[in-house]
């Protein structure tokens, strides 16, 4: 077995004990990048000499007996919309193709402090607003399972590179499924943490922290990994109290474990988009595996998830409306078409131009939905839902025509409902359908990441191992 095939957890343990060299790991990943990235186009701004220099310093620290972080010497990719000092910060825009960041984002700083070797920048769509990872600045990222289907978005480069073995871990961010959906499309694990658990602080030079309220209150940073244990390890590294983040927690909470068996509410359909048969099959398999692991599974009707998804289209799109002309001007044609169809979908729900009263009432209603969902979940219940109502979309399905474009938005109700509510969710593979990975989503109460990760581990332990034939 080559080093690029090993898990992040295994690599970290091997490097710590000097069984494995960080330089050898970096070289193995770089060879894999050289082999596959020209086709997949998952990573951009890969600088081998810088990565190898960091790996040499990591080996020297081990030899010197220095204190080592949990990811010491482990390669990780970071996303082109997340500041990393001195590295590409293009947001997928041709006009910013040469832009670089002046300072590390808080989550990048956390990875660096944990000893990670930052190996490359992962591709994403323009402004990271599509569920497809293509842009005019860096081109199209392919899914390792099928070039004709999306690797997901917006963290599509992160998920594609993971599934292909280029890096064992990746950083992503999520305001509408941008971690969870790519993970499902590529057959890896992605975690959207509770809002505030991972700092979303960014350098003062970047005005993202002064962005719309929905961006501040809903966007999160999180990890993607090839397995649950790796994603859990990366989440622990990235989590931290940071009062610079206006929604950050003042101290990391210690959630009490459930007192008894964890109950699982299976939610298949909330009346927005009928699940595809392969999605239903994946839910059935996941429910069966959880029951086998001792979970109590029951089917639920949960219309509040539909309501939350509809609020996403109201609150997010109205927050974006003032800056929309500038986005459309700087973005590519795919962005322009997608946003047009997405706003048409929102107009069907809320009218062409929702007024301020509707916007204010939307935020007020959000609070009620959060309270009701937390009361339902308590400490001993989680939800099992689709990741999407459809299998991975065909490339550019969101811009093919208005009907298909709106159907894509509707299918993503499990991705859009959760950011509105701020609860944690994990996407975990549950099998293959027609040669494509199908994932399921687990949702827990606020700061119940360990509870849903335990359930994800139970699914992973029983699901078939997924490895693309590359």
From TrEMBL:
Record-annotated Amidase domain positions: 25-452
UniProt xrefs under Pfam families: Amidase
EC identifiers of the protein: 3.5.1.4
Keyword Hydrolase tagged: yes
Enzyme class: hydrolase
Keywords, in A-Z order: Hydrolase
SUPFAM superfamilies reported for this sequence: Amidase signature (AS) enzymes
Domain of life: Bacteria
The keyword Hydrolase is annotated on this UniProt entry: yes
Gene Ontology molecular-function annotations: amidase activity
Record GO cellular component, one term: endomembrane system
InterPro entries registered for this protein in UniProt: Amidase_CS, Amidase_dom, AS_sf, FAAH2
Protein's UniProt name: Amidase
Native species: Planomonospora venezuelensis
Phylogenetic classification of the source organism: Bacteria, Bacillati, Actinomycetota, Actinomycetes, Streptosporangiales
